[in-house]
Amino acid sequence: MGRTIQDVIDRIISAVPGAPQEDSVDTLKSGDPQQEVTGIVTTFTATMGVLRRAVELNANLIITHEPTFYDHHDCTDWLQNDSVYQAKRDFIARHNLALWRFHDYWHMYQPDGIITGMVKALGWEAYRQPEPSALLIIPGMTVAQVVATVKERLALPTLRVVGSPEQSCERIALLMGAWGKEKQFQAFIDWKVDAVICGETVEWATCEYVRDAIALGENKSLVIVGHAKSEEEGMHYLVEWLQPQLPNIPLTYLAVGDPVTTL
Ligand SMILES: [Zn+2]
């Protein structure tokens, strides 16, 4: 008998200080926790593409950062009559896929596993500050250089930016995902950053604050990466972190990229 899905989940949780927590969303969303693990897939979110690829890989445990059914708690009462939900749910059941969410605990890990993955992908490990661990100080950088690095390292053809290419950009907050405007303002006001690199922004608040700051002669900028692209390298890094602990289980990271395209 090999390892069960529950064994793998328990092993990960035991590495996280303060976990488990009663109100966490990091729970098993489908599948039998006592079945033997045949393979593991890690991903930002369990898209239909990820589910199909997991079946091809014979991986029956999918570790996903985000929900599967478009709700923070994967509540599906409101979706019962929806064809998209029904087809996705049936696919998961038909293939006995176990879906476990690894969101809160990966952010609680010391230091935050999602930010670590992003910092590694960007090649900026040397600039990360111990506290707050989302703060980087990179001497001599400009907005143009930051944007060029992010585009190149994350293979993004374009980035949305509030700011000018020649602005200096030395104190940078990496606010991956959708932290909300309070955290973005905290970075500008309390951490005194020149730039916030975010996943999602709040256009009417953060974008307009930065526009006003620039008009008043202040050195502030905002770089918008998109939620998926801002966090998925953290789930890529999870393979590097987890594989040595599970040497006999095939582990595969599946990138999903940004769901939004430009036409
Ligand atoms: Zn996240």
Automatic annotation (TrEMBL):
<protein>
    <recommendedName>
        <fullName>GTP cyclohydrolase 1 type 2 homolog</fullName>
    </recommendedName>
</protein>
<feature type="binding site">
    <location>
        <position position="65"/>
    </location>
    <ligand>
        <name>a divalent metal cation</name>
    </ligand>
</feature>
<dbReference type="GO" id="GO:0005737">
    <property type="term" value="C:cytoplasm"/>
</dbReference>
<comment type="similarity">
    <text>Belongs to the GTP cyclohydrolase I type 2/NIF3 family.</text>
</comment>
<dbReference type="InterPro" id="IPR002678">
    <property type="entry name" value="DUF34/NIF3"/>
</dbReference>
<feature type="binding site">
    <location>
        <position position="227"/>
    </location>
    <ligand>
        <name>a divalent metal cation</name>
    </ligand>
</feature>
<feature type="binding site">
    <location>
        <position position="231"/>
    </location>
    <ligand>
        <name>a divalent metal cation</name>
    </ligand>
</feature>
<dbReference type="Pfam" id="PF01784">
    <property type="entry name" value="DUF34_NIF3"/>
</dbReference>
<dbReference type="GO" id="GO:0046872">
    <property type="term" value="F:metal ion binding"/>
</dbReference>
<dbReference type="InterPro" id="IPR036069">
    <property type="entry name" value="DUF34/NIF3_sf"/>
</dbReference>
<keyword id="KW-0479">Metal-binding</keyword>
